[in-house]
Amino acid sequence: MEHAHKASVAQIYDARSEQYDSPFHTRIAADFVEWANLRPGDSVLDLAAGTGLVAIPAARKVGPSGRVVAVDISNGMMDVGRRKAAREELAIEFLHHDIADLSPLDLVAEGGRGFDVITCCSALVLLKNPGDAIRHWASLLAVGGRIIVDTPCEIAMVVSFLLDKVAKEVDPSASPIYDPAWILSQRPLQEACEDAGLTTRVLQTEAYEHEDYSVDDGPRVFERYFDKSGLIGSAVSDVKEKSKTLFLKTFADAASPTGVIREEVRLHIAIGIKHI
Q: How far apart are CA 190 and CA 182, in angstroms?
């Protein structure tokens, strides 16, 4: 099951890799770099680095005396990142690996100093055990180092929640690619960072973007999001048509009295500092 989950996530992002660098994703990444407060010579571990939206500006800031390691499970996303970094001649270490367990990579030599900054942008909720991952990442931090990680707010995942509901009806064994508990509240994020020994503050961003859907948008929304649902890999015609019928009904039922479903991309951001 764990392998299948990872393969599904990689498949989703491989397919999106050439179109991933939207203004929206670029804005979020720019904020991560700002929150990281990087200085020349810093060492940075960027997890779920994707196309390098965080790693590349981070490498510019830390300069040749610094170090940037970028890790991702999607070869497609990493290929885009490598090409972009090569154009600027940035010495970023791109590594294809599962970010939940980095121990085989030997990123920090025994007795060596850990990373000054670890970032994980727009990916934590895709992990099966986010809390375990954060504890593992904290072990790779230098004293005084900081982790910046996010989870989406509930209002950012309205369509995804509806698709998960449909997926469960179509296939009772289906499970969402994320744990909804990490989206419904900021508390799991706060507690996971604190349990990892990090002094943590959590902030909520303003809306990066929003969209108001009408009930008539249902078919378009379904086609746009179906491959991100718990039914990924099951897009044979009969399953897809059954899912679409159920989704359109669920979508209409979720609309406000005026026939609108609003989605806003807001994030909970945790900044955790390692003091010992």
A: 10
CB 163 within 8 A of CB 214: no
Q: Which residue has the tokens 């899912």?
A: 243
Q: Find where tokens 């369509």 sit.
A: 159
The SS3 assignment for 133 reads helix
| C-beta of residue 189 within 8 angstroms of C-beta of residue 182 | yes
pLDDT at 237: 53
Structure tokens at 259: 């026939």
Distance CA 24, CA 140 (A): 29
Give me the chain's average pLDDT, please: 92
Task: Give the C-alpha separation, 235 to 243, whole Å.
Answer: 10
d(CA 266, CA 208) in angstroms, rounded, equals 6
On the CB side of 243, how many CA atoms lie within 13 Å of its CA? 28
Supply the pTM of this predicted model.
0.91
232 has pLDDT over 70: no
Neighbours of 46 (CB within 10 A): 33
Q: Is the pLDDT assigned to residue 4 strictly greater than 90?
A: no
Query: Is 270:138 a contact under the CB 8 Å cutoff?
Result: no
